[in-house]
Design brief:
With 417 residues, the chain is α+β, with helices and mostly antiparallel strands. 33% of the residues lie in helices and 26% in strands. It has a six-stranded mixed beta sheet, sandwiched between helices. Strands 8-15-14-11-9-10 form a six-stranded mixed beta sheet. Strands 1-4-3 form a three-stranded antiparallel beta sheet, with no helix packed on it. Helix 1 crosses helix 4, helix 8 crosses helix 9 and helix 12 packs across helix 13. The relative contact order is 0.18.
Length: 417
Amino acid sequence: MMIHNIETERADLFDVSILVAMKIHINGNVTEAELRDAFEKAVAAHEILNTRVCIEPDGRAYYRGVDSYPEQDNAGLRNNRITFEDTDWKDIIKREEKKRFRIETGEFLKAFVFEYDPEGCGILFLMHHLGGDGKSLVYFIETFMKALSGEKPRFTEMKLIPAGDLKGKDSLDRLGPLAFIPKLYNKRWEKDEKRRSFTFKDSDAAYEEYWSKRESSVNEYVISPEMVSKILTKCRAWNIGFTAYITTAFLRKSGHRMDIGFAVDAREDGNRCMGNQATGISIKCTYDKKKSFRDNAVHVQELMDRKLEDKDLRNFILPFMASFEPTLVDAINLEHAGTFRSKTSKKLADILGYGKKTKNLSITNLTKLDIRDTYGGLKIDQFTFVPPVISYGKNILGISTLGDCTVMTLHRVKEIC
């Protein structure tokens, strides 16, 4: 019986805004039957899409393989589905992110063919973060395109980052002076009279409450190859990355000190498996108007490098979050949604940015995607990535490049009443 515990990705379990979205346009003639067949083959090829999430009464959560449910073979093929509809892709995101993925039945991925004609089609892929990170969905799309062009997909095992793989998880040695935070709040949670384990019914209530008062918006910006070339020329001259350049542009526009988070790929072995293998860093910075844009950008890169070049700092968030009692991590997400309140979870939610003081900006730059844009006679001529507005974020920026197409998106959630 295949079981993988949910540990370092526990914060994704009860988050009410956890939808990873990618939109592609395929240039080439494909039929509806071919699209459906390719999607089913791609789902079958990835282990994680053929699991379901279980939550035990004691709060333990894990992925359980469908081989544990012999009476429900091919559950992934039924619960992860592709549909056809004539609806704007942004409206599909706004509609679907308000619906809880039924991960307990194996629903991790949905695809919507929103544009279809003899010369090509537009497809929107929506994935729950427990189905994987941004790169995971990129690799699923690669598998899908291979199947669509007639290649036979290879089976790929799921890959996670277990807490046991992180040095000092039990002793909290790796966390240094901040180790007192999980120690303190775990003790407080143990004594909290409202402490309990949560279920999928709690998640249903959280979605209903949170989205009854909010809606999201997605702005898409296609950056021309000429503009990208100009930016990269400056980046090379200044010895900075594209992400630092874009971050500096946002800092200049904001005019105030910003707390900025960056998603970071944690695939140290370079695997192409689906599963949440991401970590993150953050910096706090103000644009110095007395200095040039170049000097500000160099400073941003230096702040990023201090954490990116230190393995412990780069991966800090994983052992840190895994050190809290799992049900306490659930509780701070429900605090954010407005359906649970306790003294312990309220204080911790505020400290970790799940309250009103979320990160000003969160950036995920998938950089130049390590997949082909051409598969036989089919070509992906546009690729758009929209990260989720996670509970500790406010303005979420997604950037990706495939071939000579670079697209940036800004995803926000606002209150409507």
